[in-house]
Structure formats: structure tokens, C-alpha cells
Amino acid sequence: MAELTKLYPMVQFKKDTWEIDEFDAASIFLLVGTEKAMVIDCGMGIGDLRGAIEMITDKPLVVVISHGHIDHTANARQFEEIWISPKDADKPIPQNIERRRWDTIRIANRQKGCFEGVYKMFKLYPYDINVDIREPGPDEPMPIIHDLEDGMQFDLGGGRIVTAYACPGHSEGEFIFLDEKTRTLFAGDALNYNLGVGAVPLETTLRYMKRMQDLSEKYDGIYNGHHDFRALGAPLDDDCLPTVIAMMEDALAGHIVPCQVPSPWGQDLQLTSEPVNVMAQAPGMMPGTKETRPQRVMLRRGRNFLGINPENLYEKKD
Ligand SMILES: [Zn+2]
């Protein structure tokens, strides 16, 4: 294996609790107990994540995945075993390499506040996109996949017990993780200021968002699975969750006023709930992309954006 970068920005924001920044693409969290260490998420697959983690700890690693999206699973094959919801375990690990490279370039451009030019002029990220984003090597077979179930607990030793809670919406198998010892909640993509849901009825997602709020006696800060909408090592602001809950309640009461927002991905998000052919709308989209966006409208309240599927609001009653 070529020498891969380990130069991730990282910060220990609470005792034995690290946020590893995969160069703005995704965040990986590392929780070190006296017996084991937990890795939450595996990023877009840039560089030698395991090597970087092993610079911090030599404890046996328990790897949990918040959900099955491309930017949370890709370096999972550097580890022997992972835990993921069976509802999200059907996707290949890692997913399409061209897509990963394309997304990574877009993210780097977005973070620099400019498309294309600056990314090419300065090498501000210490990785080589053609080396550090790669297909897994022969020494990286598929990990053993364990089913993550609601309420499952992981004992890292020294009284550090992490509980996994289902939180479907952004994906069907989305999970969040509560570390009561440091009073920290790790939310994956279940909560942020530009939240996309719709994998299950909105009514269902709202119930789980309220459970996240009910758990708030046990945590002081929520960390989403990217360090966007917050600084590295700092939690989301406290208004995020109550605003999302209020927006969902409003939508379920029938108040759906879509807004159009520009997107750094090259296309404006649509006002209608019609399925949109991404290629037709987005000249900046990755060449060869044929995917159709799921039905979605964007709602806004203050600085919160919430993308919902207006065709999938209510649970089916029988
Ligand atoms: Zn996601």
C-alpha cells in the first residue's frame, strides 16, 4: 500500500474523546475507554484512518457506523469488524470511487468559499486525491458486519458505556450514540442545520427526534457527523434540535412552504415535490450521474433548513 496521509486535523475536545476531521468531508469520533476504544463512522475514505487512530490509542477498536451513506462507511475496510443497522447494511463498502473523489473535490471547494480555482491553485489539504482515495487493497477484506440494534450498549471500560439509539429519517438505519460518561451525543446525520429526512414517514422521524430531546438530561452537547455548522470540536448550538422538532410539527400540521436554496453541488434545490432528474437540472453534476433525486422540498426557519418528502408524512394506520 502506498504511503497514505494521516495528517487529519484532530482535537481532543473532552477527556479521551477526539474529533478527527477527514479534511472537511466527514468527522470520525474516537472514544477511548480503559479496555476498548470506540470509532464512530469511517468517513469518505481519505487516507489511513486506522493509522491515525493508532497514533492515539492501542486499545482494541469497536467500530460503529451511524448510517450507510458514502461519507460514513468508506474506510470501514481498514477494520476487522463493524456495527451498522441491518437497514443500512445493504450498500457496498466503500461505494463508487469516482463519486467519492467528486464529492471530496466539491467539499474542498465549498470550504474554501470558491469553486474549482482555489482548489487547484493551493494545496491546502494534505492528501493526494488520486492516492488517498482508493479502492481497498488486498489486505482490506470486507469487515465482519454485526447488527446494530436500538438500545445496544458498548462497555469501553472504566465506566464508559456508550448506548446506540435508532433515529431513522435521514436514512432508514440511522443511529445516534450517547456517551453518558462525558455527557456527549453523537448524532451522525440525524441532526444538523441542513437536515435531509424522508427515508421513513416524517411522523416517525419526529418521534425519534423527541426521544433525542428527552435524552438531553444525559448530554451537554450534540456532535453531528461532519464539522459543518459548527467548529471542529465544538457542539451544534442548542437551538438546532428544538427548531427541527418545531419545523417537523409544523409540516405535519399541514404548514409546508417550500423555499429554494442555492446548492454548492451545482443545482438549486427544487420548489416542487416532483422527482427531479439531477442531470437535467445540474450541469455541474458528476459526469455520468443518472440518479433521480427523491421527492423533497426544502423548508426554512431562521438558519435551519429541513428537506422533507411531502409524499411521506404520516405513518400508515391499519
Ligand atoms: Zn448521510
What does this molecule look like?
Helix 6 (202-214) runs antiparallel to helix 7 (240-252). A hairpin with a 2-residue loop joins strand 1 (10-14) and strand 2. With 318 residues, the chain is α/β, with parallel strands linked by helices. Mean pLDDT is 89; it is low at 276-283. The chain has helices spanning 49-54, 70-73, 97-111, 117-121, 129-132, 202-214, 240-252, 278-281, and strands spanning 10-14, 17-21, 27-32, 37-40, 61-64, 81-84, 144-147, 153-155, 161-166, 175-179, 184-188, 194-196, 221-224, 276-277, 292-293, 297-301, 304-308. It has one domain: Metallo-beta-lactamase, Chain A, CATH 3.60.15.10. Bound molecules: zinc ion. Residues 67, 69, 170, 189 line the site of zinc ion.
Brief rundown of the structure:
By secondary structure, the chain is an alpha/beta fold.
